[in-house]
C-alpha cells in the first residue's frame, strides 16, 4: 500500500453504513409491510427520493427501468394516504397496461398492513363496468394509462378534485407513444396544490418543458449507472442461420437449467409460430402480443407467475412492464436492431439483485448488432456454441437418473413393482436388467430418450454465404437456390422504375409487413412498371395475406406469383438496356 492509498482506506473504513428503510422516515405499518416482503436496504433512487417526497417537495427523477423507482414513489404515497377519504388521493400515469398492473401490485403489497386502502388499475381493454363499480365504492390510488384516464374524465366518472399526489412513470415512454397531449390535459384537470413526481429514463426537451410548467421547484434526482444492463445478467449470443433458430432454441432448452423464460420475437406472427412449435415439442409455452385479448394476456402472465407456464413468447410492446420473479432466462429469438430494446428485453431477468441469463440468436449478417450492443452497454457478450448431441444426451440421462432416484424413495410402490418384475422373471426367464430396460422403453413412449449422434445438424455452409452477390442494399442474390436448401419463387409486384422504387424500399416494406428476414430475399429485378422479387417458394398463406395490403411509394403492390415464360428475362434485359441508352442520350444532351 502506498502513502496515497492509506487515507482512502481510512476514509472507507469510516464511511457511514448504508441507510435502511427505517432511516428514511417511513411509518411503522409501511416498514412492517417491507419486512414481510423481504426488503432490507433501499436502492439509490429510493434512498434519495423517499425522504424528499415525504417532505412534500416535487421530484424529477432520472432512473433506468429496474432501479426500484416504483417503490421510490409508492412508499411515500402509501405512508401518507388517508383511508377515510374515498375520492382518489393519488394518480399514477403509466405508458402501458402491463406497467400499470405492475405498479398496482406494488401499491397493494406496500399497503398490506393498512386497513381499507383500495388501489384501482384503469386501462384500455378492460370493461368499464369493473372500473365504474370500484370508483363508486371509493378508491385511494388510481393507476392507469393516459387514454383510459381521459375517457373517465370526459365521462365524469373519475373525480380528481381532491387529488394530492400525481406520478408520471416512464414519462419519456409516454411521449414516445403519443400521449403528450393526454398527459397535459390530465395535469390541467388536477388541483394545483398536488405534489408531482416525474420519472424518466431520459430527459428530452419536451419532458424538461413539462416539468417546468407543471412542477413547483422540483428536486432533481439522478441515479447514474455505469452500464445500461445489470451486472447480474450473463449475456451470451449464438451465431446461427435463421432457419436453424428453432432447433437451436430446442437444444438450449434441453441443456439450460431454467425456471421461467421469455422468448422475444420481432413480429406477432413469429411469436405465435414459436409458441406453437414449442408446445408441439412438449414445452408449456404461450404467446402474448398485440393481437391477444387483455383478459387472455393477464391469464397467461398469471400462469407464468404461478409456474403453470414455463415459457412466454412475446413481442417488445406486449412484454413492457412485466416483472415476474421466476424469469431466469431471456432469449432474443430475433435480436433487436436497437440497443434500447435489447436493454429493456434482458431487463426482464436479473432484477432486484437476482441473477439471470440472456441469450441472443444472431445470424451472420447481424454480427454488427452485437458490436453495437457491446458499445452501448459497455458490457461484452460471450459467444456460445450450439449444445452438441452429447451434451443434450448427458442432460437427458442426468434427468432420467433424477426421476429414477425420486421413484426409489416411494418404497411402497417400489415394493409392488418389484413383485411384478419378479413375476415376469420367473415366468419368462429374462434377466432383471433386461426387464428394467424394457420398462424404461414403455415409460419413455414414442420419443427416444437419447438423440442419435448422426443427427447432428450441419453447420451453415460458409461457401454458400460467400457466393452471395449482394449489392449495397443487401437485396440481390445470384441463382435460384436458397442457402437453407429450399427454393425461391418469383413474385410480381405492381411498382417499378417509373414509381422511383429502389430495392431497399422493397426489402424494407416486405420484411416489415410480412415478418420476412433479409435472407428470405433472392434476386430483385426492377422493371419500368413492375418488379420481380424472389421469395421463399413455401411462403405461408398468412404471410401472403399480410403482404396483400402492403404499399410502396403509396401504391398497393398487388403481389402475385409471376407466370412469365423464359422470354421474360430477355425482355427485361432489353428494357434495362433501353433505359440505360435513354439515360446516356439525356446525359449527352445536358453536356
Provide structural commentary:
With 591 residues, this protein is an alpha/beta fold. It has 4 domains: 18-222, 3-Layer(aba) Sandwich (Rossmann fold), CATH 3.40.50.300; 233-388, Rossmann fold; 390-454, no CATH class; 462-579, Alpha-Beta Plaits (2-Layer Sandwich), CATH 3.30.70. Helix 3 (44-54) packs parallel to helix 4, helix 4 packs across helix 5 (97-110) and helix 7 (146-155) crosses helix 9. The longest helix is centred in the last third of the chain and has 24 residues, at 567-590. It holds the Pfam family DeaD_dimer. A motif (Q motif) lies at residues 19-47. DEAD-box RNA helicase involved in various cellular processes at low temperature, including ribosome biogenesis, mRNA degradation and translation initiation. Its EC number is 3.6.4.13.
Descriptive key words:
single chain, about 600 residues, alpha/beta, Rossmann fold, 4 domains, seven-stranded parallel beta sheet, about 45% helix, globular, disordered N terminus, disordered C terminus, Helicase_ATP-bd, RNA-helicase_DEAD-box_CS, helicase activity
Amino acid at each position: 500500500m502506498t502513502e496515497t492509498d492509506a487515507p482512502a482506506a481510512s476514509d472507507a473504513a469510516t464511511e457511514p453504513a448504508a441507510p435502511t428503510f427505517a432511516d428514511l422516515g417511513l411509518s411503522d405499518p409501511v416498514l412492517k409491510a417491507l419486512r414481510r416482503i423481504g426488503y432490507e436496504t433501499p436502492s439509490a433512487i429510493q434512498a434519495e427520493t423517499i425522504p424528499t417526497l415525504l417532505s412534500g417537495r416535487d421530484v424529477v427523477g432520472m432512473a433506468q427501468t429496474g432501479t426500484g423507482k416504483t417503490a421510490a414513489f409508492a412508499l411515500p404515497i402509501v405512508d401518507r394516504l388517508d383511508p377515510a377519504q374515498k375520492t382518489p388521493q393519488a394518480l399514477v400515469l403509466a405508458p402501458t397496461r402491463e406497467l400499470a398492473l405492475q405498479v398496482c401490485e406494488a401499491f397493494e403489497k406496500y399497503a398490506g398492513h393498512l386497513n381499507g386502502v383500495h388501489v384501482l388499475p384503469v386501462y384500455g381493454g378492460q370493461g368499464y363496468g369493473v372500473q365504474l363499480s370500484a370508483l363508486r365504492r371509493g378508491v385511494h390510488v388510481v393507476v392507469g394509462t393516459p387514454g383510459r384516464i381521459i375517457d373517465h374524465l370526459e365521462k365524469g366518472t373519475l373525480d380528481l378534485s381532491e387529488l394530492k399526489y400525481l406520478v408520471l412513470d416512464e414519462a419519456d415512454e409516454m411521449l414516445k407513444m403519443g400521449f403528450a397531449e393526454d398527459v397535459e390535459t390530465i395535469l390541467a384537470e388536477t388541483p394545483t396544490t398536488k405534489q408531482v413526481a416525474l420519472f424518466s429514463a431520459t430527459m428530452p426537451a419536451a419532458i424538461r418543458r413539462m416539468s417546468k410548467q407543471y412542477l413547483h421547484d422540483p428536486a432533481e434526482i439522478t441515479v447514474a449507472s455505469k452500464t445500461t444492463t445489470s451486472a447480474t445478467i450473463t449475456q451470451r449470443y449464438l451465431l446461427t442461420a435463421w432457419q436453424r433458430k428453432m432447433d437451436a432454441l430446442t437444444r438450449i432448452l434441453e441443456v439450460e437449467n431454467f425456471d421461467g423464460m421469455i422468448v422475444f420475437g420481432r413480429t406477432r406472427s413469429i411469436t405465435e409460430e414459436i409458441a406453437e412449435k414449442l408446445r408441439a415439442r412438449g414445452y408449456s409455452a404461450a404467446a402474448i402480443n398485440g393481437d391477444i385479448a387483455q383478459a387472455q394476456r393477464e391469464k397467461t402472465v398469471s400462469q407464468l407467475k404461478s409456474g403453470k407456464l414455463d415459457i412466454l413468447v412475446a413481442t417488445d410492446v406486449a412484454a413492457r412492464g412485466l416483472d415476474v420473479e421466476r424469469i431466469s432466462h431471456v432469449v432474443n429469438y430475433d435480436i433487436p436492431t436497437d440497443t434500447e430494446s435489447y436493454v429493456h428485453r434482458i431487463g426482464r431477468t436479473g432484477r432486484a439483485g437476482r441473477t439471470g441469463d440472456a441469450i441472443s440468436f444472431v445470424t451472420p449478417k447481424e454480427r454488427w448488432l452485437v458490436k453495437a450492443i457491446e458499445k452501448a452497454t459497455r458490457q461484452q457478450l460471450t459467444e456460445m456454441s450450439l449444445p452438441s448431441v452429447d451434451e443434450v444426451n448427458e442432460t437427458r440421462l442426468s434427468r432420467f437418473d433424477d426421476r429414477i432416484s425420486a421413484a426409489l424413495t416411494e418404497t411402497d410402490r417400489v415394493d409392488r413393482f418389484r413383485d411384478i418384475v419378479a413375476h415376469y422373471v420367473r415366468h419368462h426367464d429374462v434377466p432383471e436388467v433386461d426387464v428394467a430396460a424394457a420398462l424404461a422403453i414403455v415409460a419413455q413412449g414414442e420419443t427416444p430418450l437419447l438423440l442419435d449422434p448422426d443427427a447432428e445438424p450441419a453447420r451453415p455452409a460458409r461457401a454458400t454465404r460467400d457466393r452471395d452477390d449482394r449489392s449495397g442494399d443487401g437485396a440481390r442474390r445470384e441463382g435460384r437456390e436458397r442457402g437453407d436448401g429450399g427454393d425461391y419463387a418469383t413474385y410480381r409486384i405492381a411498382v417499378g422504375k417509373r414509381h422511383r422504387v429502389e430495392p431497399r424500399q422493397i426489402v424494407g416494406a416486405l420484411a416489415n409487413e410480412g415478418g420476412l428476414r433479409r435472407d428470405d430475399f433472392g434476386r430483385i429485378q426492377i422493371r419500368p412498371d413492375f418488379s420481380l422479387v424472389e421469395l421463399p417458394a413455401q411462403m405461408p398463406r398468412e404471410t401472403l395475406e399480410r403482404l396483400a395490403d402492403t404499399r410502396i411509394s403509396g401504391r398497393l403492390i398487388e403481389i402475385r406469383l409471376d407466370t412469365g415464360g423464359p422470354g421474360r428475362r430477355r425482355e427485361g434485359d432489353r428494357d434495362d438496356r433501353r433505359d440505360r441508352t435513354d439515360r446516356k442520350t439525356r446525359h449527352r444532351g445536358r453536356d
